[in-house]
Protein backbone atom coordinates (compact mmCIF):
# COMPACT_ATOMS: atom_id res chain seq x y z
CA UNK A 1 0.00 0.00 0.00
CA UNK A 2 3.02 2.34 0.49
CA UNK A 3 4.88 3.84 -2.44
CA UNK A 4 8.02 5.66 -1.33
CA UNK A 5 9.88 8.22 -3.43
CA UNK A 6 13.05 10.19 -2.73
CA UNK A 7 11.43 13.63 -2.70
CA UNK A 8 8.29 15.69 -3.46
CA UNK A 9 9.46 16.33 -7.05
CA UNK A 10 9.50 12.60 -7.86
CA UNK A 11 6.07 12.24 -6.28
CA UNK A 12 4.82 15.10 -8.45
CA UNK A 13 6.17 13.32 -11.55
CA UNK A 14 4.48 10.08 -10.59
CA UNK A 15 1.06 11.49 -9.61
CA UNK A 16 0.99 13.83 -12.58
CA UNK A 17 1.63 10.87 -14.90
CA UNK A 18 -1.23 8.95 -13.24
CA UNK A 19 -3.58 11.92 -13.79
CA UNK A 20 -2.53 12.31 -17.44
CA UNK A 21 -3.12 8.60 -18.02
CA UNK A 22 -6.57 8.66 -16.42
CA UNK A 23 -7.63 11.64 -18.53
CA UNK A 24 -6.20 10.18 -21.73
CA UNK A 25 -8.05 6.91 -21.11
CA UNK A 26 -11.30 8.62 -20.16
CA UNK A 27 -11.52 12.33 -21.02
CA UNK A 28 -14.77 12.69 -19.05
CA UNK A 29 -13.26 11.14 -15.90
CA UNK A 30 -14.45 12.36 -12.47
CA UNK A 31 -11.59 13.43 -10.17
CA UNK A 32 -11.60 14.23 -6.47
CA UNK A 33 -9.15 17.04 -5.70
CA UNK A 34 -7.38 18.32 -2.61
CA UNK A 35 -5.65 21.60 -1.76
CA UNK A 36 -2.74 22.34 0.61
CA UNK A 37 1.02 22.63 0.38
CA UNK A 38 1.47 18.95 -0.50
CA UNK A 39 -0.52 19.30 -3.72
CA UNK A 40 1.26 22.39 -5.06
CA UNK A 41 4.18 20.58 -6.76
CA UNK A 42 1.74 17.93 -8.05
CA UNK A 43 -0.48 20.49 -9.78
CA UNK A 44 2.52 22.44 -11.08
CA UNK A 45 3.92 19.29 -12.70
CA UNK A 46 0.52 18.26 -14.05
CA UNK A 47 -0.04 21.69 -15.65
CA UNK A 48 3.38 21.46 -17.31
CA UNK A 49 2.76 17.95 -18.62
CA UNK A 50 -0.80 18.71 -19.75
CA UNK A 51 0.39 21.77 -21.69
CA UNK A 52 3.24 19.90 -23.30
CA UNK A 53 0.94 17.06 -24.40
CA UNK A 54 -2.00 19.34 -25.23
CA UNK A 55 -4.12 17.15 -23.00
CA UNK A 56 -7.87 17.66 -23.39
CA UNK A 57 -9.06 18.62 -19.90
CA UNK A 58 -12.29 20.25 -21.09
CA UNK A 59 -14.50 17.22 -20.45
CA UNK A 60 -13.32 16.16 -17.01
CA UNK A 61 -15.37 16.77 -13.89
CA UNK A 62 -13.86 17.51 -10.49
CA UNK A 63 -15.05 17.72 -6.91
CA UNK A 64 -12.88 19.39 -4.32
CA UNK A 65 -12.78 17.94 -0.86
CA UNK A 66 -13.42 21.03 1.20
CA UNK A 67 -13.84 24.77 1.62
CA UNK A 68 -13.84 27.17 4.55
CA UNK A 69 -17.21 28.41 5.78
CA UNK A 70 -17.55 32.16 5.43
CA UNK A 71 -15.05 32.65 2.59
CA UNK A 72 -16.19 33.32 -0.96
CA UNK A 73 -14.37 31.51 -3.79
CA UNK A 74 -12.69 34.87 -4.53
CA UNK A 75 -11.25 35.31 -1.05
CA UNK A 76 -7.46 34.85 -1.49
CA UNK A 77 -7.29 32.21 1.28
CA UNK A 78 -10.29 30.23 0.04
CA UNK A 79 -9.70 26.85 -1.51
CA UNK A 80 -11.55 28.15 -4.57
CA UNK A 81 -8.82 30.77 -5.04
CA UNK A 82 -6.12 28.13 -4.40
CA UNK A 83 -7.56 25.89 -7.13
CA UNK A 84 -7.84 28.82 -9.52
CA UNK A 85 -4.21 29.76 -8.90
CA UNK A 86 -2.65 26.30 -9.04
CA UNK A 87 -4.84 24.41 -11.50
CA UNK A 88 -8.16 25.70 -12.80
CA UNK A 89 -6.80 29.01 -14.08
CA UNK A 90 -3.85 27.30 -15.77
CA UNK A 91 -5.54 25.00 -18.31
CA UNK A 92 -8.66 25.18 -20.51
CA UNK A 93 -11.07 23.39 -18.14
CA UNK A 94 -14.85 23.72 -18.49
CA UNK A 95 -15.58 25.77 -15.35
CA UNK A 96 -19.12 24.37 -15.14
CA UNK A 97 -17.66 20.90 -14.41
CA UNK A 98 -15.40 22.03 -11.56
CA UNK A 99 -17.08 21.74 -8.17
CA UNK A 100 -16.12 23.15 -4.78
CA UNK A 101 -18.30 23.34 -1.70
CA UNK A 102 -19.74 26.87 -1.35
CA UNK A 103 -18.57 28.39 1.92
CA UNK A 104 -21.20 31.10 1.61
CA UNK A 105 -24.24 28.83 1.01
CA UNK A 106 -27.27 30.19 2.86
CA UNK A 107 -28.36 26.72 3.99
CA UNK A 108 -25.08 24.90 4.61
CA UNK A 109 -26.63 21.54 5.52
CA UNK A 110 -28.79 21.47 2.38
CA UNK A 111 -25.79 22.49 0.32
CA UNK A 112 -23.69 19.64 1.79
CA UNK A 113 -26.40 17.12 1.01
CA UNK A 114 -26.63 18.34 -2.61
CA UNK A 115 -22.83 18.26 -2.96
CA UNK A 116 -22.65 14.60 -1.96
CA UNK A 117 -25.63 13.75 -4.20
CA UNK A 118 -24.04 15.55 -7.10
CA UNK A 119 -20.93 13.36 -6.81
CA UNK A 120 -23.10 10.25 -7.05
CA UNK A 121 -25.14 11.68 -9.95
CA UNK A 122 -21.90 12.30 -11.86
CA UNK A 123 -21.12 8.58 -11.50
CA UNK A 124 -18.81 8.77 -8.49
CA UNK A 125 -15.16 9.70 -8.21
CA UNK A 126 -12.74 7.57 -10.24
CA UNK A 127 -9.58 8.92 -8.62
CA UNK A 128 -9.40 10.82 -5.32
CA UNK A 129 -6.30 12.79 -4.32
CA UNK A 130 -5.77 13.30 -0.60
CA UNK A 131 -3.29 15.00 1.65
CA UNK A 132 -3.20 14.32 5.38
CA UNK A 133 -3.18 16.64 8.36
CA UNK A 134 -0.67 16.32 11.20
CA UNK A 135 -3.53 14.82 13.26
CA UNK A 136 -4.46 12.33 10.54
CA UNK A 137 -7.41 14.25 9.13
CA UNK A 138 -8.42 13.68 5.52
CA UNK A 139 -10.43 16.39 3.85
CA UNK A 140 -11.40 18.27 7.00
CA UNK A 141 -12.63 15.11 8.70
CA UNK A 142 -11.02 15.51 12.09
CA UNK A 143 -10.26 12.57 14.46
CA UNK A 144 -13.49 11.00 15.69
CA UNK A 145 -15.49 11.63 12.48
CA UNK A 146 -17.69 8.59 11.78
CA UNK A 147 -16.59 6.50 8.80
CA UNK A 148 -20.17 6.63 7.48
CA UNK A 149 -20.32 10.45 7.40
CA UNK A 150 -21.37 12.35 4.28
CA UNK A 151 -20.48 15.89 3.22
CA UNK A 152 -20.96 18.08 6.30
CA UNK A 153 -19.95 21.20 8.20
CA UNK A 154 -17.11 20.67 10.65
CA UNK A 155 -15.64 22.75 13.48
CA UNK A 156 -11.89 22.84 12.84
CA UNK A 157 -9.63 21.69 15.66
CA UNK A 158 -7.25 24.23 17.18
CA UNK A 159 -4.28 22.25 15.81
CA UNK A 160 -5.66 22.33 12.25
CA UNK A 161 -6.36 26.07 12.50
CA UNK A 162 -2.80 26.62 13.70
CA UNK A 163 -1.35 24.44 10.89
CA UNK A 164 -3.34 26.38 8.31
CA UNK A 165 -2.59 29.81 9.78
CA UNK A 166 0.60 29.79 7.66
CA UNK A 167 -1.60 30.63 4.67
CA UNK A 168 -3.30 33.59 6.44
CA UNK A 169 -1.79 37.03 7.24
CA UNK A 170 -3.56 37.07 10.61
CA UNK A 171 -3.77 33.69 12.44
CA UNK A 172 -6.94 34.84 14.18
CA UNK A 173 -8.73 35.10 10.83
CA UNK A 174 -8.48 31.35 10.04
CA UNK A 175 -12.15 30.33 9.82
CA UNK A 176 -13.49 28.21 12.68
CA UNK A 177 -15.46 25.88 10.44
CA UNK A 178 -15.40 24.30 7.01
CA UNK A 179 -17.43 22.13 4.68
CA UNK A 180 -15.86 18.77 3.94
CA UNK A 181 -16.74 15.72 1.92
CA UNK A 182 -17.55 13.00 4.42
CA UNK A 183 -15.54 9.87 5.09
CA UNK A 184 -17.98 7.71 3.16
CA UNK A 185 -17.96 10.08 0.17
CA UNK A 186 -14.17 9.65 0.10
CA UNK A 187 -14.33 5.89 0.62
CA UNK A 188 -16.64 5.51 -2.40
CA UNK A 189 -13.93 6.74 -4.79
CA UNK A 190 -12.77 3.86 -7.00
CA UNK A 191 -9.12 4.65 -6.36
CA UNK A 192 -7.37 6.85 -3.79
CA UNK A 193 -3.90 8.36 -3.72
CA UNK A 194 -2.96 9.89 -0.37
CA UNK A 195 0.25 11.92 -0.47
CA UNK A 196 2.35 12.88 2.54
CA UNK A 197 5.67 14.69 2.29
CA UNK A 198 8.16 16.12 4.76
CA UNK A 199 9.31 15.05 8.21
CA UNK A 200 6.37 16.76 9.95
CA UNK A 201 4.12 14.02 8.52
CA UNK A 202 6.41 11.16 9.62
CA UNK A 203 4.78 10.61 13.07
CA UNK A 204 1.23 10.36 11.69
CA UNK A 205 2.36 8.07 8.88
CA UNK A 206 4.04 5.79 11.45
CA UNK A 207 0.89 5.82 13.57
CA UNK A 208 -1.17 4.91 10.50
CA UNK A 209 1.12 1.94 9.97
CA UNK A 210 0.75 0.77 13.60
CA UNK A 211 -3.04 1.23 13.88
CA UNK A 212 -5.85 -0.80 12.44
CA UNK A 213 -8.76 1.18 10.99
CA UNK A 214 -10.22 3.44 13.68
CA UNK A 215 -12.30 6.60 13.62
CA UNK A 216 -9.76 8.15 16.01
CA UNK A 217 -7.35 8.29 13.06
CA UNK A 218 -9.28 9.30 9.92
CA UNK A 219 -6.46 8.36 7.54
CA UNK A 220 -6.67 4.77 8.82
CA UNK A 221 -10.01 4.30 6.98
CA UNK A 222 -7.94 3.83 3.84
CA UNK A 223 -6.83 0.44 5.22
CA UNK A 224 -10.32 -0.75 4.36
CA UNK A 225 -10.18 0.56 0.78
CA UNK A 226 -9.27 -1.97 -1.92
CA UNK A 227 -7.39 0.52 -4.10
CA UNK A 228 -5.79 3.10 -1.83
CA UNK A 229 -2.10 3.92 -2.05
CA UNK A 230 -0.08 5.95 0.45
CA UNK A 231 2.54 7.93 -1.43
CA UNK A 232 5.44 9.17 0.68
CA UNK A 233 8.76 10.87 0.30
CA UNK A 234 11.71 9.58 2.33
CA UNK A 235 11.17 12.24 5.01
CA UNK A 236 7.52 11.29 5.61
CA UNK A 237 8.46 7.59 5.57
CA UNK A 238 11.39 8.07 7.95
CA UNK A 239 9.64 6.61 11.04
CA UNK A 240 8.31 3.52 9.26
CA UNK A 241 9.95 0.18 10.01
CA UNK A 242 13.10 -0.52 7.99
CA UNK A 243 11.53 -3.34 6.00
CA UNK A 244 9.00 -0.92 4.49
CA UNK A 245 11.49 1.88 3.86
CA UNK A 246 13.85 -0.61 2.23
CA UNK A 247 11.23 -1.48 -0.38
CA UNK A 248 12.10 1.78 -2.10
CA UNK A 249 15.79 1.06 -1.89
CA UNK A 250 15.17 -2.39 -3.32
CA UNK A 251 12.93 -1.02 -6.09
CA UNK A 252 15.61 1.51 -7.03
CA UNK A 253 18.40 -1.03 -6.85
C1 LIG B 1 -7.08 20.11 1.75
C2 LIG B 1 -7.37 19.02 2.68
C3 LIG B 1 -6.50 18.76 3.87
C4 LIG B 1 -5.01 18.77 3.52
C5 LIG B 1 -4.18 18.48 4.75
C6 LIG B 1 -2.69 18.58 4.47
O1 LIG B 1 -8.04 20.16 0.72
O2 LIG B 1 -8.33 18.35 2.50
O3 LIG B 1 -6.85 17.51 4.41
O4 LIG B 1 -4.75 17.82 2.54
O5 LIG B 1 -4.50 19.39 5.77
O6 LIG B 1 -2.35 19.89 4.15
P1 LIG B 1 -0.89 20.26 3.64
O7 LIG B 1 -0.73 19.62 2.30
O8 LIG B 1 -0.91 21.77 3.52
O9 LIG B 1 0.06 19.74 4.65
Give a quick rundown of the structure:
By secondary structure, the protein is of the alpha/beta class. The protein is built from 8 helices and 10 strands. The strands form 2 sheets. It has a 7-stranded parallel beta sheet. A 3-stranded antiparallel beta sheet has the order 4-8-7, with helices on one face.
Keywords:
single chain; 253 residues; alpha/beta; seven-stranded parallel beta sheet; three-stranded antiparallel beta sheet; 8 helices; 10 strands; globular; binds fructose -6-phosphate
Structure, described:
It is a single chain. The protein has 253 residues and is of the alpha/beta class. 35% of the residues lie in helices and 16% in strands. The protein contains 8 helices and 10 strands. The chain has helices at residues 8-25, 39-53, 79-88, 108-121, 158-164, 183-187, 202-210, 242-251, and strands spanning 2-5, 30-33, 61-64, 66-68, 98-99, 127-130, 152-155, 177-180, 191-196, 228-233. It has a 7-stranded parallel sheet with strand order 1-10-9-6-2-3-5. The protein has a 3-stranded antiparallel sheet with strand order 4-8-7, covered by helices on one side. β2 (30-33), α2 and β3 form a beta-alpha-beta unit. The mean pLDDT is 95. The structure holds fructose -6-phosphate. Fructose -6-phosphate binds at residues 34-38, 65-66, 131-133, 137-140. Residues 34-38, 65-66, 131-133, 137-140 line the site of fructose -6-phosphate.
